[in-house]
Amino acid sequence: MKNLKLASLGLAVMVCCAVSGQKTIPLNEPNYNKPLLFAELPDKIPVEASYLKNVLTNSSAIGKDVQFRLANSKVDHFSGSVISFAGKETGANSVTIRSSNFIGAIMNISEVTLPDGTMTYRGHVISMQHGDLLELQKIEGQYYFVKRKFYDLINE
Predict the structure, then answer these.
(1) Cα-based distances in Å from 91 to 2, 25, 33, 52, 85
(2) How many Å apart are CA 53 and CA 44, to the nearest integer?
(3) Residue 22, SS3?
(4) How many whole angstroms separate alpha carbon 63 and alpha carbon 40?
(5) pLDDT, tens digit, for every residue of 103-119?
(6) Run of H or E including 85
(7) DSSP 8-class letter at 50
(8) Which in 14, 60, 89, 156 has the greatest CB count within 10 A?
């Protein structure tokens, strides 16, 4: 009987130590009340593939100022300076531009060569402080910046 009491006491101490040693991981709740950065822009902004190619081929110098035309919108361009560029040796051209007219936003555009030899473009304009973003999508052969909610794309 004495051994059973000692074993029970030991088991109780182990359970208490195991329970007190567990830490709860804090969860970040999404902030759905972030201000919208692209509220004055239309839901879909058409983009010419030639503009995309031009930005990628003429933006290899870090610190260079560039402008990117936004057709059919109240704001006629996205302007900023190049903060990163990756060339063909990585398998894709990619440029990252910090915006000067959308404060806090960063544009990333990449040109990817598909296995069949065709080129496709991917990209987005995003700000971590705002509740919306623009995603580059190809819809029926035409590229568009499509407005999306921040938490549709980003999970915290």
Answers:
(1) 72, 39, 39, 17, 13
(2) 20
(3) coil
(4) 28
(5) 999 999 999 888 888 88
(6) strand 77-86
(7) H
(8) 60
78 has which bridge partners? 68
Contact (Cβ atoms closer than 8 angstroms) between residue 146 and residue 138: no
Would you state the structure tokens that stand for residue 103, as one six-digit string?
């404060």
Q: What is the pLDDT of residues 69-107, one digit of tens each?
A: 776 666 677 889 989 888 766 567 889 999 998 899 999
d(CA 43, CA 146): 6
Residues 75 and 61: their CA atoms lie apart, in Å, by: 25
Q: 121 is written with which tokens?
A: 């473009």
Q: Is 1 helix (H, G, I), strand (E, B) or coil?
A: coil
Alpha helices in 22-89 (DSSP H): 49-57
Model pTM?
0.74
Which amino acid makes up residue 130?
H
